[in-house]
């Protein structure tokens, strides 16, 4: 059973990597990140919300799904939707547009660092020297990727870098902020509603009926693939993996995302990374994995958590 959980978590990471590559293909066809975010959130939100209401459920799950939102929880859902869900999707797509899927993915992969900092500041976990060291090592890895080891050789645009870091920060918000409503109303329901609300709001910025590019068969196929295989399925796989393995291990196993994104970027787009940058990739991935595992063991018990 554990092997099944590992396979599901790795598959989620692999599908997210493919999603990033498909997005990059679309951006090269002059598809705007804004329109793609609008379509992805609205379509995936409808899909996941529908699944959450029609999937087979236990009596306990039915009780959770039947709960009505309080005013406070509605505010929390809106914050999760507009800052977390919309924020992480938009900044990640913009990072891909300016820096490519590989660098955008590795920058977003630093999200656990910001989760770690939040938990320490809110006294939800204890701080250890080795974790501080891993934080510094991660920043060194990012520096190697961005600057190839020297400030005079900056390799990505400022916008791409800032959007990549913003996607990591919003990923941290997306992970930490909705913890209470996830327990009350269920992960699938909250994620689906979060995407749906964000998608509806984003119609005011870029309606899906105004693509502003030639939507041919290949573009339409990529869009559908991103919604189904790059959004809905990996999320379902990630959730399903939690039945068989612990959450920290599931999170670590999605390391297939940045690794595969890098390999596919070289394959499809002939991206060239120096040995220093590849070392930076390895440093970031290893240090974030170690930080995640150590942090999980070092988190305060539930009754001592300060909310």
Shape: globular
- Share of helix, binned: over 70%
Approximately how much beta-strand content do the residues carry? under 5%
Instruction: Give the biggest beta sheet.
Output: none
Mean pLDDT: 84
Task: Please tell me about this protein's structure.
The chain is mainly alpha-helical. It is built from 14 helices and no strands. It has helices at 2-28, 33-54, 59-65, 71-99, 101-108, 111-121, 129-147, 158-176, 179-185, 187-202, 217-241, 247-253, 256-269, 275-297. It is globular. Residues 300-307 have low confidence and may be disordered.
Q: Secondary-structure map with pairings?
A:
Blueprint: H1 2-28, H2 33-54, H3 59-65, H4 71-99, H5 101-108, H6 111-121, H7 129-147, H8 158-176, H9 179-185, H10 187-202, H11 217-241, H12 247-253, H13 256-269, H14 275-297
């Amino acid at each position: 059973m554990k092997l099944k959980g590992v396979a599901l978590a790795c598959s989620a990471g692999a599908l997210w990597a493919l999603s990033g590559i498909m997005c990059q293909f679309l951006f090269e066809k002059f598809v705007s990140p804004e329109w793609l975010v609008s379509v992805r959130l609205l379509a995936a939100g409808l899909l996941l919300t529908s699944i959450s209401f029609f999937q087979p459920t236990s009596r306990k799950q039915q009780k959770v799904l039947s709960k009505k939102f309080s005013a406070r929880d509605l505010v929390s859902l809106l914050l999760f939707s507009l800052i977390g869900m919309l924020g992480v999707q938009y900044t990640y797509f913009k990072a891909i547009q300016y820096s490519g899927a590989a660098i955008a993915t590795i920058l977003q992969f630093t999200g656990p660092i910001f989760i770690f900092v939040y938990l320490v500041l809110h006294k939800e976990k204890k701080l250890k020297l080795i974790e501080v060291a891993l934080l510094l090592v991660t920043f060194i890895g990012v520096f190697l990727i961005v600057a190839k080891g020297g400030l005079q050789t900056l390799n990505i645009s400022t916008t791409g870098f800032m959007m990549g870091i913003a996607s990591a920060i919003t990923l941290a918000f997306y992970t930490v902020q909705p913890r209470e409503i996830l327990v009350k109303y269920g992960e699938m329901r909250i994620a689906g509603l979060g995407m749906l609300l964000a998608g509806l709001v984003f119609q005011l910025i870029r309606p899906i009926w105004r693509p502003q590019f030639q939507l041919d068969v290949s573009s339409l196929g990529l869009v559908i693939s991103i919604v189904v295989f790059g959004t809905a399925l990996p999320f379902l796989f990630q959730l399903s993996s939690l039945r068989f393995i612990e959450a920290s291990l599931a999170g670590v196993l999605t390391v297939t995302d940045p690794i595969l994104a890098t390999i596919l970027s070289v394959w499809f787009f002939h991206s060239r990374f120096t040995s220093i940058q590849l070392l930076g990739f390895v440093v970031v991935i290893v240090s974030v994995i170690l930080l995640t595992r150590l942090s999980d063991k070092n988190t305060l018990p539930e009754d001592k958590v300060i909310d």
